[in-house]
Amino acid sequence: MTEALLLAQLLLAEAALLTALLFLLSGLDDLFIDGVYFARSLWRRLTVYRRHPRADVQSLIGRTPAAPIAIFVPAWDESAVIGDMLRHLTATLDYPDYRVFIGLYPNDPKGQAIVTALAAHDSRLQAVRCARPGPTSKADCLNHIWAAATRHEARTGRRFKAIVLHDAEDVVHPHELHIHNALIPGLSLVQLPVRPLADPASPWIAGHYLDEFAEAHAKDLVVREALGAAVPSAGVASGLCRETLGRIAAQRRGGPFDATSLTEDYEIGHRVHGLGRRSAMVRLKSRGEAVSVATAEHFPATLSAAVAQKSRWLTGIALAGWDRLGWPPGLATRYMLYRDRKAILTALLALLGYALALGFVALALIRRLVPGAEALPPPVAPGSPLAWLLAANLAIFGWRLAMRALFTARAHGLAQGLMAIPRSLTSNLVNALAALAAIRRYRQLRASSTPPVWGKTLHRFPANPA
After folding, report:
1. Which is more confidently placed, 369 or 265?
2. DSSP single-letter state for residue 375
3. Structural domains in the chain?
4. Considering only CA atoms, which of 189, 187, 235 is closest in space to residue 213?
5. Backbone CA torsion sign across 113, 147, 175, 465
6. For the residues 299-323, what does the mean pLDDT come to?
7. CB crowding 142-174: b at 16 or more within 10 Å, else e
């Protein structure tokens, strides 16, 4: 029995050593991103903001004449939310010249009826019917909208300055289009933050999106821009230069979006960067508001829905995206692609870390309960390489939790910031299950000759969008 315990202890220690080393390498990678972010913030505070006041939305209004902007809203089976979304958007959007194109399917009579009724009373709304029954891919729906928008340009003789992407459940900020109008075409892609809405009924599953988006859209995408890498579109609150999108469409000899892609928004950001055009995550406040102008929306509130959504993201970005985009030139772009693609490994690594931790707990209990087992050498000898690795990882883990709490508190308040610490367990669980599902999904895609279809998520529009 003692020999079996000793063997199990040795195997556990060897597995922990390898896992701890991988954790350390990934942690150092994340620390580099933190270092760039804080160095950039300090530099701008000491230089730029000493010479120039911080810009806000109001400082942009009137600087550039309001040009026509098109809003694309692809909608498959969204009758539960599309009406409320469009009514709120047209009632609150503070911009004088825009048109909303809503992509609908012939086998979605409820959605067609709602949009048609609204469009009959508001000339800024236009229903676009896709050629094939749904669901096709979201990119296919966007290409139908693109074709309708270009026909509208030809008919009216007015060319849109920008194309703004939104989803059927989005709560669009009233001042959003002023930002896109002011910064495009100097920037070919303007990504505004996405702000997940807190759900009292799902503080853990829906809540973990608050933490992830707060850190990603306040830090990670900002660092991408600072390093000169591609800034991917989030698919909502994304403003694209119409001329740049037209160039991509001409290169593709059709619509600008690839209908065979699961994550057309992510890829369009790389296509824009591949043309040598600038893109940025833009965080500007409107006067009197505490947080940046952002698009708000509800995210999945159940474990199965969250795993399904994230597995689609991981499949499209980390697996299929590897096949589709390869490794474009540019050190910064390749580094960020590596970070995107390591997401599956780090998700599974977290799961392995939890399993090893449970193994050490079980071993500690056995050493206390089995006679003679307490005489065995400790599984982690003081001063050993494993001990040093575990100490370093513990310090990095503490820093990561502090960063997650800091960015969540900035975006959603102190209470949510504190919740972000225990909620990291939820985030790790969801991401690990999504990684496993993504691997299965990718294998199915490789084995299938049929194009991918829209991965439908049940959407909600808030009862009080204000």
Report:
1. 265
2. G
3. 57-299 (3.90.550.10)
4. 235
5. positive
6. 94
7. bbbbbbbbbebeeeeeebbbbbbbbbbbbbbbb
